[in-house]
Amino acid sequence: MADKVLIAGAGIGGLVTALRCQQLGFAVEIFEQASGPEKLGAGIQLSPNATRILRALNLETALAPFINQPHSALFLNYQSGAELLNLPLGDEILNRYGAPYWHIHRADLIACLSVAIGKKAIPIHYDTKLIDFVSNRDKVIVIDEENKKHTGQFLVIADGIHSILRDKITPPTPPRFTGQMAWRGTLPSAALPRSTTHSVKNFLGPDKHFVTYPIRQGEMINFVAVTQTSDWTDDSWRQEGDIAQLRQDFADWNTEIQDILQQAKSCQLWGLFERPLARRWYDGRAALVGDAGHAMLPFLAQGAAMAIEDGYVLGGQLARYSGHAKALSDYQTMRYNRVKRVQQRASRNTGLYHAKGSIARLNQRLTLSLVGKLHSAGLDPFAWLFGYDPVSGFSD
Ligand code: FAD
Fold this sequence. Notes:
Elements: E1 4-8, H1 12-23, E2 27-31, E3 43-46, H2 48-56, H3 60-63, E4 72-77, E5 83-88, H4 90-97, E6 102-105, H5 106-119, E7 124-125, E8 130-135, E9 140-144, E10 149-152, E11 154-157, E12 176-188, E13 200-205, E14 208-215, E15 220-228, E16 238-241, H6 243-249, H7 255-263, E17 267-274, E18 282-283, E19 286-288, H8 291-294, H9 303-320, H10 324-353, H11 358-376, H12 383-386
Parallel strand pairs: 1-2, 1-11, 2-7, 4-13, 11-19
Antiparallel strand pairs: 3-6, 4-5, 8-9, 9-10, 12-15, 12-17, 13-14, 14-15, 16-17, 18-19
Helix pairs in contact: 1-5, 1-9, 2-9, 9-10
Bound molecules: flavin-adenine dinucleotide.
């Protein structure tokens, strides 16, 4: 009988790990505390390092109606809209990396992954919160809130930024509020007075930035506005946002932003938390995947991508070795430095995106201009990030 992989969490990381493990011949069972597939959230960006994995899991056709393939990534002055950097995405990135750049609503991605899971007859137990596990020589037993026990050979801990199972593996380090809030929302493109390009636009201003891009084949517009605050008093990490307040906060920004905020009916407000990179990623027969191990700021658009990479690599490791200790220790070795670099870069981008004052803004202009020049000279500064390829072999 095939070894069984138990998965805590039906988020992006958990579902991708499930599909990969099933593809490699494991039996899989998923436990999710929510009552169904998560519908909250807004758009996310999926760079080639993530899309090549989704394609390898045969998801491209199912995802096609929901994605948008942007032409370019534009970095713009927050008021005038003057271009600070224009990075081609579209066909150029497809040709360079052999995988596309996509935008998608997080709920659409979760829904497609969940349908794929259903087609493979992988059980997802909704309304089932896991609270503990015990790992021994030949099995792992997870315990849910109703004290029911479930047994398998491996446990994948993909229960997100507020993971409670993580603390059994690595010294407890609670999520840390980063002083940033993200206001996220979507609206129909048809509601806008002017048509918009198929690009991701990053408007950069002092202490704030505003990102917008189309999703669902251009039918919807996604926006994320990031502002700073010294206090986040709510216990939860997301709440209903006050759209009137958001309009006021961005009142003197570019007209394109005014158009979007005038037409948007609502938004969600997310406190942005980081969780220090877990020092240890596995213990016994259990391993961490995604935000549970390394929640990061969204300023490199890589949180979901890292969860996708983790899940794909972990599945491969479990299939490769008969001994779980070697499989999991190699998994940590393969992932640790990459995730650390991505998490640090995402953090560092705060200063670049939110530059305030003449010197910081000059530095911003010079840095973005250098990135553009390197790119034009064929020295892609994102090669280390987008070129990562666990599907056909590792490139770093
Ligand atoms: P999650 O998606 O959070 O899933 C965890 C799941 O586990 C949830 O379904 C939860 O209900 C469940 N769960 C929790 N506890 C338990 C339990 N005890 N038992 C059972 N189930 C449990 N990433 C990108 O790659 N690109 C982007 O452009 C991007 N933009 C972002 C913008 C913002 C504003 C934010 C906040 C994040 C963004 N991210 C982005 C990050 C991305 O959404 C996350 O990194 C990603 O969803 C992490 O996936 P995960 O599977 O680890 O966790």
